[in-house]
Specification:
The chain is of the alpha/beta class. Helix 7 links the parallel strand 3 and strand 4. The C terminus is likely disordered.
């Protein structure tokens, strides 16, 4: 039973083959920008959680690797259990160099350079261990006098240890930077036609522990800031700002602080309306499920689920993650009702969307606290309604008729929409308003002839799914 998406396949020969958000066109200029970087560079790919950053970054990594760059991908959130982020970065870099290095003497030399850099990095990471061991030892001594003696000598030992650590650490940092520079030069010389770079992609930085995220940024700045090495950071800038302020205080200027580490931001553009919803219908297997069910017209396949959901999601600018969660719940609904039961496709589309978008409004509608006019006004005020106005014009009559029937089923009689439409039809006029009234009344009567709008049945089906609580994914769509 598929409830969440399977991991997206990224074919090495065509990384953007399964690009459902039409972001393939973003890759060439971004790659050109990275290739043309003459010195060390840090680019932030900025997008909200659920905007598709991870998918794009994984595709881009495959494209860069296939083009001949030494490129690695690191999910920082999955490594923030470690105390030292340097080890995670160098470990992934070692794997990337192993994959990049050709067979033969030149490849062996490159591997040796990586091995040297890794050894130095391990020494840097262990630099603070001796002092920590001394501190831990004091607490387990049995003799009080011996403890006092060690503590009396401890202050001078701390100063001496710190001076030695500083001197040795400074030397090792410089040695690491030199070895990394040599490594990057060798990579470039092996692929001079494309100006090959060492590209380090670090994703999910904003989801890490604040201390880990800051440590990682500091390592990038102080250890990896060498020519030929480019960092690409996948993050939500606003969330990372909050993490930094959680560490340094709410009045801390996080934006200014990040400028010390990040050279340039690239804001990931929003996908085109409806693209992701259509993609999710295929990925979740919903098209196959609904093809086996009946609609109000007893058709073989409901035609309104995908387009109406797509319209509503686009009009409210639902994030990709929210769309995924909505379609996951739709999948559950389809799997928990008998195949021969009517689906009430339009009602299901609308109520499912409102439930996921704003549960308070959803509850108020079911309790009869919303009139049809109020519902339509709410839709007209969706933030991106002008961008999808054609779809709204197309589905408006269906949405209005379903709500008229639904509120009638709920016993809401104060709404005068229905009576006004009947009076307009009986008046004998034949203008656009009368045509609209006839269309809405026709849909309304068709629903009533089947003795149900499906409002309460659909609400009950959605209520059953409330007991299914999927855990959040570890990564981003």
């Amino acid at each position: 039973m598929l409830i969440r998406q399977a991991e997206l396949e990224i074919p090495a020969d065509d990384p953007f083959r399964n690009d459902a958000l039409n972001r393939k066109e973003l890759e060439p200029p971004l790659t050109q920008f990275v290739v043309q970087a003459s010195g060390p560079f840090v680019l932030a790919l900025d997008g909200a959680w659920g905007s598709g950053k991870t998918t794009f970054l994984r595709m881009w990594q495959s494209k860069l690797t296939g083009a001949g760059h030494a490129c690695l991908y690191l999910n920082a959130w999955k490594t923030d259990f470690a105390q030292e982020p340097l080890i995670a970065v160098v470990g992934e870099l070692s794997s990337a160099i192993e994959e990049f290095a050709p067979t033969g003497n030149r490849g062996d030399i490159l591997r040796q350079s990586m091995k040297k850099a890794r050894k130095i990095a391990e020494s840097i990471a262990k630099r603070s261990i001796p002092l920590g061991v001394k501190l831990l030892t004091v607490g387990i001594l049995d003799t009080e006098d011996l403890t006092k003696k060690i503590m009396s000598d401890f202050a001078s030992d701390i100063v001496e240890d710190r001076i030695k650590d500083y001197e040795n650490g400074k030397s090792e940092i410089e040695e690491f930077r030199q070895s990394l520079t040599s490594l990057a030069n060798q990579v470039g010389q092996m692929k001079p036609d494309i100006s090959a770079k060492v590209v380090v992609i670090i994703d999910e930085l904003d989801r890490c522990r604040p201390t880990y995220a800051v440590q990682l940024l500091e390592r990038i700045k102080h250890l990896f800031d060498v020519p030929g090495v480019v960092f690409i950071l996948g993050l939500d800038r606003s969330q990372l700002n909050h993490s930094i302020q959680a560490l340094y205080g709410s009045n801390f200027d996080a934006m200014r602080y990040l400028k010390r580490f990040i050279d340039l931001d690239y804001r990931l553009p929003q996908p085109k309306a409806g693209d992701y919803c259509s993609y999710l219908f295929k990925r979740f297997g919903i098209e196959e499920l609904i093809s086996k069910r009946k609609t109000l017209n007893n058709q073989d396949s409901p035609q309104n689920l995908s387009p109406i959901l797509s319209f509503l999601m686009s009009a409210t600018r639902m994030s990709l993650r929210e769309q995924e969660q909505t379609l996951a719940r739709l999948r559950i609904v389809l799997q928990t009702i008998p195949t021969n039961d009517l689906l009430f496709d339009i009602t299901l589309s609308i109520l499912l969307f409102i439930r996921e978008w704003n549960h308070d409004i959803y509850t108020a509608i079911l309790e009869g606290e919303f009139s049809v006019k109020k519902i339509l006004t709410m839709i007209e005020q969706f933030p991106a309604i002008k961008e999808v106005s054609e779809e709204f014009d197309k589905y408006r009559e269906q949405i209005e008729a379903v709500f008229l029937a639904g509120l009638t089923e709920l016993g809401v009689t104060s709404d005068d929409h229905l009576e006004n439409y009947r009076q307009l039809i009986n008046s004998g006029t034949d203008g656009p308003d009368a045509q609209k009234a006839r269309s809405i009344i026709h849909i309304f009567d068709r629903i009533k002839n089947h003795r149900a709008s499906g409002f309460m049945i659909t609400a009950q089906r959605l209520a059953l799914t409330s007991n299914f609580v999927p855990y959040d994914d570890e990564g981003e769509s």
